[in-house]
Amino acid sequence: MNINMKFYGHIISYFLKFSLFALFFWSIHRREYIWALGCLLSLIVCFLPTLLKRRWKIHLPIELELLIVLALFLHSGGGALDAYHNIPWWDHITHFLSTAVVSLLAFIVMAIIDAYSPEIKFNMPLLIFFIIIFSLAMGVIWEFFEFTSDLLFGTHNQLNNTDTMLDLFFDLLGGIIVALPGALYLKHTTPERFGLEMGEEIGLHSKN
Fold first, then answer.
1. Which of 57, 89, 131, 155 counts the highest number of beta carbons within 10 A?
2. Neighbour-count burial for 78-105, b at 16+ CB within 10 Å, e otherwise
3. Are residues 112 and 194 in the same domain?
4. pLDDT per position as a tens digit, 26-70
């Protein structure tokens, strides 16, 4: 990534973080405490890459960091701005993007584990199968949180059974979007080689 693209990536990332910070106070002003908590938790997650950098010298690529921040902003920021109720398909879009980002992180982590751990090795079918199942598992956990929020706080995250099933479908689609290109990429390399290259990019030391 060239310097200009990296610079603009950081600018967009900081803008989205500042927006979440502002929406936190906006939600409190509107007494939407659930979304205020969501914005606060999203901000904490957004600054995890900074913690990784300072504590363990791990540098996430700006593209990956930006995807994480964008997914969190669309979810919590969209809730604070009533996008879930005012924009059709917003909920499904956030499910798709969030699951795709989480699946991409899982893909990278598994490849790095394969590269840096002599005891653990993944073949390509197992890697792809895990990513798809992992995306569905994250979607189910998300639906549990939505159900609990509706039950305890009177929110309306789950409109009906069709809405829930569509959410899970988009979770599955997010996993497939990561898994299939991952499979094509790994046809020309190996999980270990990809893991080593990614590990070197984020600041890990080679096992060799």
1. 131
2. bbbbebbeeeeebbbbbbbbbbbbbbbb
3. yes
4. 999 999 988 999 999 999 999 887 777 777 677 778 888 899 999
Q: How far is Cα 75 from Cα 181, in angstroms, rounded to an integer?
A: 25
> How many angstroms separate the CA atoms of 45 and 65, rounded?
10
Domain that holds residue 81: 1-87
Q: Is the pLDDT of residue 194 over 60?
A: yes
Residues 166, 116 share a domain: yes
User: What pLDDT shows up at residue 165?
Assistant: 93
Which pLDDT value is given to residue 117?
A: 78
**Whether residue 102 is found in the same domain as residue 52:** no
- Asked which of 68, 87, 106 is the last residue of a domain, the reply is 87
